[in-house]
Amino acid sequence: MVRNLDESIVESCRQWVAKVIVGLNFCPFAKPVVETNRVSYKVINERSLAHCLMALSDELTELAANDETETSLLIYPHGFESFEDYLDLVDVADALLVDEGYEGIFQLASFHPDYCFDGQKYDDAANYTNRSPYPILHILREASIEKALESIANPEKIPNRNIEFARAKGLEQMQALLKACRPE
């Protein structure tokens, strides 16, 4: 049963990456990585912060030893449903990345079903640039990001372009896109 549930969770996140992240071009350099199956999706069913951080540490070690996997999404379906609790996880995860010597090698991006940018209203469509079916820590290789950014004009404008795009699509359309990725 857990395996089937995990598979459903992974499929939901794959759909989200395909329809939202790649489909809406929120990350202009994600498409080739997705198309070549170089994304790892792992469901972390632990609920305690210590176990969740151990899973992150293990994944950092695995990525450092394996260049074939470009990026990894650690999916936390339990224990971080509250956005505030999730932000605590992100803070400690960032510190762990530094403590384990991976600063400058990897960086984390954060996604959550209730993601809300600081200072924004909860129902601002802009939040959907970082909303996902489940809480996710996304591990990215810094060297790959730097290389990808070289081929993109005005990469510093990506976040604002995404926000403007999400707002132009509107709250209802952004909600529907995310909902379509969630299992029934």
Folded structure, characterized:
- The protein has 184 residues and is α+β, with helices and mostly antiparallel strands.
- The chain has one domain (2-181).
- Helices cover 50% and strands 12% of the residues.
- The chain contains seven helices and four strands.
- A four-stranded mixed sheet has the order 1-2-4-3, sandwiched between helices.
- Helix 1 (2-22) packs antiparallel against helix 7 and helix 3 packs across helix 4.
- The longest helix is centred in the first third of the chain and has 21 residues, at 2-22.
How are the SSEs placed, and which strands pair?
Layout: H1 2-22, H2 31-35, E1 39-43, H3 49-65, E2 71-75, H4 83-99, E3 106-111, E4 136-141, H5 142-150, H6 158-169, H7 171-181
Helix pairs in contact: 1-7, 3-4
